[in-house]
Design brief:
Radius of gyration: 19 Å
Distance between the termini: 7 Å
Number of helices: 7
Oligomer: single chain
Structural class: alpha/beta
Number of strands: 12
């Protein structure tokens, strides 16, 4: 038994990533940065944010989550032409220049997403916010199902963790129970408005932060277990920002700051059905059982 414990601790010390816990203050800034906010985590655009800004925030003891859209292609992004027309579907409702993707095409999407993750790694981001991951509920032009959504999200979690980056589940209340163990935090928009906040409580119950943003002028309806903020729809640098929770008694870093690997680039590992961490854990567990 002692051998098994030692091996598990060894694996945990090698493969680890940032895991934000309840009580972590944040701001949602994918519309542009404002570093004057007195928060612990900045959510920034993964492509547009400069490496120097991320490094500056990290040096100041802050954490940074980087945003990418996984379920859509945005024609203004530098990698937009890498998506073949065969996996591009209908226009994304309400967003000009954005179209849905066929999330079943993970073989095609993987190299594009690996390049994005490497960019985030090079910039020293701590985590990834993959957006538009519930498109199986929309009119994408593809016959997507809830099962396709689960498969896609498991793929994203596994891929992101291969780069020792944490990963958040975005706006997917109906599949939380199936996915909470695979994701490190939740990011939710307007859960009070749609009365969905309680759907994300499994994250809180596993000591994982629920970052909730309301595009409104009132904190009414937000649960105390979520890290609620009010923002303007454009999430502009000078726009509305209100914290719905009282963070005055917290320390500068209440998150579980698991040792973070060096920001140097990592080679693209092969795609496994399970994460590398899980594979090593299973191997070590097997060896331990043999030795017992």
């Amino acid at each position: 038994m002692r051998v098994l414990v030692i091996l598990v601790l060894m694996v945990g010390s090698i493969y680890s990533w940032w895991q934000p816990t309840p009580g972590t203050s944040w701001d949602y800034q994918i519309g542009g940065p404002n570093t004057t906010r007195n928060v612990q985590v900045y959510f920034l655009d993964g492509a547009d944010t400069r490496s120097s800004l991320v490094s500056s925030l990290r040096s100041a003891g802050k954490r940074v989550s980087c945003y990418f859209s996984a379920g859509s292609v945005e024609d203004w992004r530098s990698d937009a032409k890498q998506f073949p027309s065969s996996i591009i579907g209908n226009d994304f409702t309400g967003w000009e220049g954005e179209k849905y993707l066929d999330i079943r095409a993970t073989t095609v999407l993987e190299p594009i997403f690996r390049a994005r993750l490497q960019t985030a790694k090079d910039k020293n981001c701590d985590g990834i916010e993959w957006d538009n991951v519930d498109t199986w509920t929309a009119k994408t032009g593809f016959p997507l199902t809830a099962a396709d959504g689960l498969t896609f999200l498991r793929f994203l979690s596994n891929l992101t963790h291969q780069y020792d980056l944490s990963v958040g589940l975005k706006n997917n209340p109906t599949q939380v129970k199936d996915l909470v163990s695979l994701f490190d935090f939740a990011v939710v928009e307007d859960c009070a408005q749609y009365r969905e906040c309680d759907s994300y409580l499994p994250f809180y119950n596993q000591n994982k932060a629920i970052f909730a943003v309301e595009y409104a002028d009132s904190c009414s309806g937000l649960l105390p277990q979520v890290e609620g903020i009010l923002r303007d729809v454009a999430v502009s640098p000078s726009g509305l920002f209100v914290q719905c929770n009282d963070y005055s008694a917290t320390t500068s870093a209440p998150s579980t700051l698991i040792p973070t690997p060096s920001p140097t680039p990592v080679p693209s590992p092969p795609s496994f059905a399970f994460s590398l961490t899980s594979s090593v854990f299973l191997l070590c567990s097997s060896l331990a059982l043999i030795l017992l």
